[in-house]
């Protein structure tokens, strides 16, 4: 920049072959002009001012050129402020305008405005020129990650591509932090390649596309490596106590979650759950339980079986208990009936014979008391076989009566 600024002045110096003049020109140039872009990073469709700085003294005339040389073919315009005169050059375009302080304004920037611009300024006795590079940036367009492999399996190759435009820089992140080492990025960082994916590559990937004026971070792309099934097993008790619940669980390492199928004694069942639950195990549940798992992505299946026994210590089944209880109750009831019947027979046939000598028409209760009294009064009765029986029956009867 500095070298360019001085070049014109040096040429002048060489032509004159005078050190003093040369120095004076040098020093004048040392105040040298510059061009500042306002804004610093011009954006497409907006405007920019190429503001000339460092001008000392009154500007006699100035010219702007498209390109990096002062060449009539490149001229945009030439301005003589004191005369209010503007001469458009071959590179003139209506979006270009000038200010009295020598600055150039370009409105409605388009990408093709990008390039070098040179200003030539004459103030008093001296001239100066400066070239500036105008960049016209476009905001980056949305960045989106796409993948070549929607359902990647272990050891496959996976490529993630960040689709975006106008980006000057693309950065990738995994789970919010910079990429772990060992991954391959293309020169422009647009593609991220896993030559052989593994489960450790699982994660959320994002790409951040940026340029000087904008930055867009993509939505995350979740990489999930499909694998398995592996480590299939059925967990649960191999020996279940009769009447207790029985729970078998089939599990395997697998992504995605596998489908489950169960067999009992090699017969396929409807059950498509990883759990097999039986509320109360009986001898019917003894046998082989087989679980088959299938991974829908890897198309791999695994199968395993276990043999479950149900404890033979079945308590007397409920039916036996009922029958036993019935027998016991039946016996008791039978005894009671026999006793009652005996007593009634006794009362019906034996008592009336004995009571024929006593009062008639007395109610059974009275008769009963009579018997009792008689018995108590005369324990040495003749009807010995009946004595004990009568005695106890009578107590039982009176208990019932009371
Ligand atoms: C020149 O004038 C323009 C318009 O008024 C202004 O934006 C710019 O800052 C000026 N440049 C300098 C160096 O003063
Ligand atoms: C601008 O000028 C510089 C130096 O003269 C040159 O290296 C560069 O290629 C030019 N750029 C354009 C876009 O013309
Ligand atoms: C590419 O990414 C690396 C870091 O992963 C970064 O240092 C570099 O600047 C990026 N290059 C481009 C062109 O985006
Ligand atoms: C299942 O098979 C086992 C072993 O062959 C057998 O003991 C059991 O009775 C069978 N169970 C049923 C319900 O068929």
What does this structure look like?
- There is one protein chain.
- The relative contact order is 0.07.
- The model is unreliable at 1-30 and 357-402 (pLDDT under 50).
- The protein starts with a helix and ends with a helix.
- By secondary structure, it is an alpha+beta fold.
- It has helices at 2-16, 19-30, 318-355, 364-377, 384-401, and strands at residues 34-38, 48-53, 59-66, 75-80, 85-88, 96-98, 104-106, 115-123, 126-134, 144-147, 158-163, 169-174, 177-178, 184-185, 191-194, 203-210, 215-217, 221-223, 227-235, 239-240, 246-255, 259-264, 267-268, 275-278, 287-294, 301-310.
- Helix 3 (318-355) packs across helix 5 (384-401).
- It has four domains: 19-134, Immunoglobulins (Immunoglobulin-like); 141-223, Immunoglobulin-like, CATH 2.60.40.10; 227-310, Immunoglobulin-like (Sandwich), CATH 2.60.40; 330-364.
- One 2-acetamido-2-deoxy-beta-D-glucopyranose binds next to strand 25.
- One 2-acetamido-2-deoxy-beta-D-glucopyranose is lined by residues 265, 284, 286-288.
Summary?
Helices cover 24% and strands 35% of the residues. It has 402 residues and is α+β, with helices and mostly antiparallel strands.
C-alpha-based Rg, rounded: 57 Å
Which of globular, elongated, flat, extended, rod-shaped describes the shape? rod-shaped
Determine the CATH topology of the largest domain: Immunoglobulin-like
* Unreliable parts: 1-30, 357-402
Our estimate of the beta-strand percent is 35-45%
Total number of β-strand segments?
26
Count up the domains. 4
Question: Which percent range fits the helix content?
Answer: 10-25%
Query: Order of strands across the widest beta sheet?
Result: 5-4-3-8-9
Distinct bound molecules: 2-acetamido-2-deoxy-beta-D-glucopyranose
The first-level CATH class name of the largest domain: Mainly Beta
Query: What is the overall number of helices?
Result: 5
Average pLDDT, rounded to a whole number, is 81
CATH architecture of the largest domain: Sandwich
- Given helix and strand content, the structural type is alpha+beta
Give the biggest beta sheet. 5 strands, antiparallel
The separation of the N and C termini measures 132 Å
**Corresponding CATH superfamily of the largest domain:** Immunoglobulins
């Amino acid at each position: 920049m500095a070298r360019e600024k001085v070049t014109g002045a040096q040429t002048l110096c060489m032509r004159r072959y005078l050190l003093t003049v040369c120095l004076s020109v040098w020093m004048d140039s040392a105040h040298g002009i510059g061009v500042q872009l306002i804004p610093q990073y011009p954006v497409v469709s907006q405007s920019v001012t190429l503001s000339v700085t460092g001008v000392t003294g009154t500007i006699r005339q100035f010219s702007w050129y498209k390109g990096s040389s002062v060449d009539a073919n490149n001229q945009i315009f030439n301005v003589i402020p004191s005369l209010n005169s503007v001469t458009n050059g071959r590179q003139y375009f209506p979006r270009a305008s000038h200010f009295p302080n020598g600055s150039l304004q370009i409105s409605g920037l388009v990408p093709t405005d990008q390039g070098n611009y040179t200003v030539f300024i004459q103030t008093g006795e001296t001239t100066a020129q400066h070239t500036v590079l105008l960049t016209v940036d476009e905001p980056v367009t949305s960045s989106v990650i796409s993948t070549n492999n929607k359902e990647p399996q272990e050891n496959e190759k996976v490529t993630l591509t960040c689709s975006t435009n106008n980006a000057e820089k693309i950065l990738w992140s995994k789970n919010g932090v910079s990429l772990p080492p060992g991954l391959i990025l293309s020169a422009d960082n647009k593609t991220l390649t896993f030559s052989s994916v593994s489960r450790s590559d699982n994660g959320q990937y994002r790409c951040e596309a940026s340029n000087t004026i904008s930055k867009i971070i993509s939505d995350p792309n979740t990489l999930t490596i499909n694998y398995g099934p592996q480590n299939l097993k059925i967990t649960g008790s191999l020996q279940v106590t009769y009447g207790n619940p029985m729970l078998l669980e089939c599990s395997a390492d697998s992504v995605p979650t596998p489908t489950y199928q169960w067999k009992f004694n090699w017969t396929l069942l409807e059950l498509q759950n990883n759990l097999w639950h039986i509320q109360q195990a009986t001898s019917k549940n003894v046998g082989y339980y087989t679980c088959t798992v299938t991974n829908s992505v890897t198309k791999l299946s695994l199968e395993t079986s276990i043999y479950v026994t149900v404890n033979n210590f079945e308590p007397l089944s409920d039916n036996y208990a009922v029958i036993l209880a019935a027998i016991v109750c039946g016996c008791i009831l039978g005894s009671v009936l026999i006793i009652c019947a005996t007593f009634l027979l006794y009362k019906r046939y034996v008592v009336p014979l004995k009571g024929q000598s006593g009062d008639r028409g007395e109610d059974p209760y009275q008769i009963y008391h009579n018997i009792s009294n008689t018995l108590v009064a005369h324990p040495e009765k003749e009807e010995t076989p009946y004595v004990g029986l009568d005695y106890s029956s009578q107590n039982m009867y009176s208990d019932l009566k009371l």
